[in-house]
């Protein structure tokens, strides 16, 4: 993105935070490491500015990310919808307004939203928008914003930033691993972050549920279009059988994508009967964000997602066909 436009966005975002108080901080539904890291990073940033804030997500924050929370609590809107409403919202890692989910039920009519994100498909739904699509993670944008605001990099904030970078770059491996990513990561290590501990926690360790689910998932591995498309599927019954949680499905899609010759790997996760969450990963030949958008989703060129309504078989047929068209 052009430096000048981004510098102006940074100033506007800093002004938004300086001029207001009592913020609601929200990330996308089913938060990943970057969404979680960004939520807690903003909390620590607001804390050091002496601002009041409330953290919320549409559903539960996965336990595996709670080491980043420090003394903060995060409200599960589904379980504890708040009595009050909020007029100042900071949205992190949400490509569009719908990703905020039902949390928007506690927005005032006259709400002002600061939209901080890194998705190329971001539709700039905020009243102020801080979006840098060449950033590997939203925490990378928050690093810039912390510098802009003159916030000191405390150990808690650093852990959030490093965790978001680590997860959204797949352990500093994906093509979004820019020199800037590694410079920020190096800065975080210099400031005392124990990168190897976070890597083990976030990337290496598997829960028992995860391995059991992997066994089932690999049984469904299927191919089409000369083995250039591969997919796995996981049903609600699989989850129940293996005692796995919804987050245990994270990463399964890589087993489809990583097969030699595969251009697009797909994971179909049954969320409830008739609701299939689709994760798409591309080697670069197909723009999976464009494919996901056709089903009402979005994301990045090489990693995107959407939700398809219908049976597992219908979802597979429809999405695989679109992917095949994109590759032809
Ligand atoms: P995942 O497959 O890991 O859920 O998501 C991959 C990428 O696509 C992430 O950057 C995520 O934010 C984005 N993404 C996943 N699902 C959706 C969706 O339903 N809508 C939009 N706009 N983006 C999504
Ligand atoms: Mn992200």
UniProtKB/TrEMBL annotation:
Gene Ontology MF, one: nucleic acid binding
Domain DDH: 23-164
Domain of life: Bacteria
All copies of domain DHHA1, residue ranges: 239-322
Pfam hit, one: DHHA1
Native organism: Paenibacillus cremeus
PANTHER family cross-referenced by the UniProt entry: BIFUNCTIONAL OLIGORIBONUCLEASE AND PAP PHOSPHATASE NRNA (PTHR47618:SF1)
Name under which the protein is recorded: Bifunctional oligoribonuclease/PAP phosphatase NrnA
């Amino acid at each position: 993105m052009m430096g000048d436009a981004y510098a102006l966005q940074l100033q506007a975002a800093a002004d938004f935070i300086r001029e207001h108080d009592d913020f609601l901080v929200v990330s996308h539904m089913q938060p990943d490491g970057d969404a979680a890291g960004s939520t807690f990073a903003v909390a620590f940033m607001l804390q050091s500015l002496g601002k009041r804030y409330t953290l919320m997500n549409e559903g539960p924050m996965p336990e595996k990310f709670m080491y980043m929370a420090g003394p903060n609590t995060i409200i599960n809107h589904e379980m504890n919808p708040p009595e009050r409403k909020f007029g100042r919202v900071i949205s992190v890692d949400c490509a569009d307004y719908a990703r905020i989910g039902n949390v928007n039920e506690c927005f005032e009519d006259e709400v002002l939203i600061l939209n901080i994100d890194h998705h190329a498909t971001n539709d700039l739904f905020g009243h102020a928008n801080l979006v840098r699509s060449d950033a590997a993670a939203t925490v990378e944008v928050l690093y810039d914003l912390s510098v802009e605001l003159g916030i000191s990099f405390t150990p808690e904030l650093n852990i959030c930033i490093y965790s978001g970078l680590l997860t959204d770059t797949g352990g500093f491996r994906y093509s979004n691993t820019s020199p800037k990513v590694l410079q920020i990561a190096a800065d975080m290590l210099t400031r005392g972050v124990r990168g190897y501990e976070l890597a083990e926690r976030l990337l290496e360790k598997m829960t028992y549920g995860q391995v059991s689910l992997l066994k089932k998932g690999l049984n469904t591995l299927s191919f089409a279009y000369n083995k250039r498309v591969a997919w796995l599927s996981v049903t609600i019954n699989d989850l129940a059988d293996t005692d796995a949680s919804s987050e245990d499905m994270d990463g399964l899609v890589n087993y489809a994508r990583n097969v030699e010759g595969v251009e697009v790997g797909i994971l179909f996760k049954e969320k409830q009967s008739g609701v299939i969450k689709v994760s798409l990963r591309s080697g670069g030949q197909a723009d999976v964000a464009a494919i996901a958008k056709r089903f009402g989703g979005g994301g990045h060129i090489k990693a995107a997602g959407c939700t398809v309504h219908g049976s597992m078989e219908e979802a597979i047929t429809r999405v695989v066909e679109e992917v095949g068209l994109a590759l032809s």
